[in-house]
């Protein structure tokens, strides 16, 4: 039987397997791989074989003598009797990898740059040491045209990014740390995360749920934010960005390679990515570059009771809950005409059935998206506010600027690393 040194996993699926005597023992159902990040050589560890009695067992690649056009031949008659279960760090190609979204930076295929691609198959090649490694990846682009046609491309493994290695089972110490993080403030968790060794930080991040990880990333220094998000599988990275505040997601994407940022934006939900894309168009030192597009926005016919119920939303930051922004429909930013705002304290002093359109503050001017952050600082100091409306030249509400986002931008870049009291001993350490 002619031996093949290169083969696609999809071609192997369903292929009969024979023992050295030529007797059929089952069929190939999948290939087990260990993915390594950064284009490093990633080995195929073995085959998942469905035996004639329907059991699925693992067969190491070194036991495979050859792959032919129609069947695989084993070099040993010994077959494991244990049911196949992937171990920590292992993934199956057809079960885990195919269908995943990736980013491609192959200079020979510039048309794929910045566009999310879907893995449809992996090519394996046998080396001189008889090991099998991943060499190329077949990918499908997004649907194009009325008939949904998708372009197929084959890319070298070293130019495919976003397939994260399988997470290892967390050690007891890591599991204990993850549990502790769920009881801490995200800012304090971020401080601890920044001090972890990179390998342990990856393990811990893999064990934290998306919502908490998004909160933690928002509190990390810019360089650490980019490092953590780049270490995640690209689909999970997009999920994390959706959980983040739009302004923080926009800032983080500015720190990433342009192609990777484009792919992440494409993978995000359209409504989420639309808000982030809009924020990314503003200058970093402008009010538009610092604002959030998700403040508390209501119509003038909303009652005080409804407004207070919306302000109680635990997902709404405290600073943004201090003001209700009143607009004509639509209420999604950019909104209809901005009418004014109502302070939370005023809502607490009015009857529940009162409509908020009659309670607007007539003396509070808005900020404009093009204003410099110095203007915003003077604005907050002048009007004793912790949040303010941001509008465009046509009077549409674009978002709101909170004082915490302004301070974050005005403080030195390394203020998070310096801690709450630079140069002073940590009170928790002193207490020990």
From TrEMBL:
Residues 360-417 form the CBS domain. GO terms for cellular component: membrane. The keyword Signal does not apply. The keyword Transport does not apply. Keywords: CBS domain. InterPro entries: CBS_dom (IPR000644), CBS_dom_sf (IPR046342), Mg_transptr_MgtE_intracell_dom (IPR006668), MgtE_N_sf (IPR038076), MgtE_transporter (IPR006669), PRC_barrel-like_sf (IPR011033), SH3_actinomycetes (IPR058838). PANTHER family: MAGNESIUM TRANSPORTER MGTE. This is Magnesium transporter. It comes from Corynebacterium sphenisci DSM 44792.
């Amino acid at each position: 039987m002619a031996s093949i040194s290169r083969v696609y996993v999809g071609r192997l699926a369903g292929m009969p397997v024979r023992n050295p005597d030529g007797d059929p023992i089952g069929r190939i159902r999948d290939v087990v791989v260990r993915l390594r990040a950064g284009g490093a050589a990633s080995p195929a560890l073995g085959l998942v074989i469905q035996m004639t009695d329907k059991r699925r067992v693992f067969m190491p690649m070194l036991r495979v003598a050859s792959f032919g056009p129609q069947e695989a031949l084993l070099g040993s008659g010994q077959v494991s009797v244990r049911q196949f279960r992937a171990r920590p760090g292992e993934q199956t190609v057809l079960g885990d990898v195919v269908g995943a979204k990736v980013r491609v930076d192959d200079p020979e295929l510039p048309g794929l740059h910045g566009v999310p691609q879907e893995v449809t198959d992996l090519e394996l090649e046998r080396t001189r040491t008889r090991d099998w490694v991943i060499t190329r990846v077949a990918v499908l682009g997004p649907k194009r045209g009325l008939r949904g046609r998708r372009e197929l491309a084959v890319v070298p493994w070293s130019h495919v990014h976003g397939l994260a290695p399988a997470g290892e089972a967390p050690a007891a110490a890591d599991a204990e740390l993850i549990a502790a993080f769920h009881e801490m403030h995200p800012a304090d968790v971020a401080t601890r995360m920044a001090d972890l060794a990179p390998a342990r930080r990856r393990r811990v991040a893999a064990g934290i749920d998306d919502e908490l990880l998004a909160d933690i990333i928002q509190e990390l220094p810019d360089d650490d934010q980019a490092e953590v998000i780049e270490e995640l599988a690209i689909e999970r990275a997009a999920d994390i960005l959706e959980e983040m505040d739009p302004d923080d997601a926009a800032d983080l994407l500015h720190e990433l390679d342009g192609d990777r940022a484009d792919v992440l934006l494409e993978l995000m939900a359209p409504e989420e990515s639309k808000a982030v894309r809009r924020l990314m168009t503003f200058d970093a030192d402008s009010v538009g570059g610092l604002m959030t597009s998700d403040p508390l926005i209501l119509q003038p016919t909303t009652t005080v009771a409804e407004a207070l119920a919306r302000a109680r939303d635990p997902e709404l930051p405290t600073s943004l809950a201090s003001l209700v922004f009143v607009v004509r429909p639509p209420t999604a930013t950019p909104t209809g005409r901005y009418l004014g705002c109502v302070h939370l304290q005023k809502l607490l002093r009015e009857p529940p059935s009162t409509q908020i359109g009659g309670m607007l503050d007539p003396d509070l001017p808005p900020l404009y998206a093009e204003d410099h952050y110095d203007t915003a600082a003077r604005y907050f100091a002048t009007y004793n506010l912790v949040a303010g409306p941001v509008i465009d030249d046509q009077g549409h509400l674009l978002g709101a600027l909170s004082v915490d986002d302004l301070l974050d931008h005005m403080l030195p870049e390394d203020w998070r690393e310096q801690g709450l009291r630079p140069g002073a001993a940590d009170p928790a350490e002193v207490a020990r």
